[in-house]
Amino acid sequence: MKVQGKPYRSIWVNNKTGKVEIIDQTKLPHEFSVTQLTTLDDAATAIRKMWVRGAPLVGATAAYGLCLALEKNASISTMAEAIKLLLATRPTAVNLRWALESMQEKLKLLPESKRSKTAWKLAAEICDEDVEINSAIGDNGFKIIQEIWNQKNQQGTVNILTHCNAGWLATVDWGTALSPIYKAHDAGIPVHVWVDETRPRNRGSNLTAWELSSHEVPHHIIVDNAGGHLMQQGEVDLCIVGTDRTTASGNVCNKIGTYLKALAAKDNNIPFYVALPSPTIDWQIDDGNHIPIEQRDAGEVSSIQGKNRRGKLETIQLTPDESPATNPAFDVTPSRLVTGLITERGVCDASQKGLAELFPEKAI
Ligand code: MRU
């Protein structure tokens, strides 16, 4: 997508320097800053400290982290150690495991002398494939938005609520939940997005809003608790969210608060869709309770970052010194609350049968 007219991906290899570069997302929306990753530790830190985030981008960054490790030493033991380090950075997004395991499977069969070069090629393929997948998700989700637009007799606006950031910043490009929205907007359907602020890290108000502004998609930021009210008032036609891991039977793990939006959508008879690339499906798990939920620092709840009057980024404390906080980063929305899964191969029921029909080669 474009930033001030210049096309960007969220991670890339600089043609001139050969270095891996990322957008430091901890500074958005106030500063647009590009950072280089030159070592395995840089890549691990970028994921752990959430300079990059979003399930597909975490996978892509881990892939480049492995390249940076193998560039120094391409032995099997170095590869195993690098993968162990990268896997420990964030536990919930399954794309991390998917990217590393699929690279390892291919690389371990090669002679040591060929591993590093092949790793760079595989990481680039993972990125290109992510872009293609997300564009296809956009095309498939577009049809849902178009259908709603037609149901409204092409009058007014299609109001879409989204949670967290599942836009191009969370992937290599296009995004998952936002991809259909970009495609609908570009096709001339008047869409308007309710952007959940998404405390504690404010992915919605910091990142989704920034993305939508850059692409001139009409939107309003709302506090996380406003969605249910807007649904009751008939102000939401459709919800689309992303996911960090969806089980083989269609239970959806996503940013904390997603479950409450799905409950409210069900109560108000509003379609609730989840957009996901196939690497986000965990074919080894059926039960959503078996997904590891990342427990993050309580400081993310008790403090907030913003721009001060001098235009500088500042973090301030919100809560009493004595009050403890707790910070589970994700929740699981049971498949029964999900209207459908928008994948690169089409839209299916959030069920074992639905997913197995679209991905017969993956279903166990
Ligand atoms: O903690 P984050 O910012 O990595 O969480 C991201 C989300 O929950 C996104 O909604 C999810 O990764 C979908 S990404 C296309």
Please give a structural write-up.
This protein starts with a strand and ends in a 6-residue tail after the last helix. It is built from 11 helices and 18 strands. The strands form 5 sheets. It has a 7-stranded mixed sheet, sandwiched between helices. It is 38% helix and 19% strand. α2 runs antiparallel to α5 and α3 runs antiparallel to α4. The chain is globular, with a radius of gyration of 20 Å. By secondary structure, the protein is an alpha/beta fold. It folds into 2 domains: 128 residues, Four Helix Bundle (Hemerythrin (Met), subunit A) (Up-down Bundle); 222 residues, Rossmann fold (3-Layer(aba) Sandwich), CATH 3.40.50. Bound molecules: 5-S-methyl-1-O-phosphono-5-thio-D-ribulose.
What does the secondary structure layout of this molecule look like, with pairings?
Elements: E1 2-3, E2 6-7, E3 11-13, E4 20-23, E5 34-37, H1 40-48, H2 55-72, H3 76-87, H4 95-107, H5 112-151, E6 158-162, H6 178-186, E7 191-196, H7 203-214, E8 219-222, H8 227-232, E9 238-241, E10 245-247, E11 252-255, H9 258-267, E12 272-275, E13 281-282, H10 299-302, E14 303-307, E15 313-317, E16 330-333, E17 340-343, E18 346-348, H11 352-358
Parallel strand pairs: 6-7, 6-9, 7-8, 9-12, 10-13, 12-17
Antiparallel strand pairs: 1-2, 3-4, 4-5, 10-11, 11-16, 14-15, 17-18
The chain binds 5-S-methyl-1-O-phosphono-5-thio-D-ribulose.
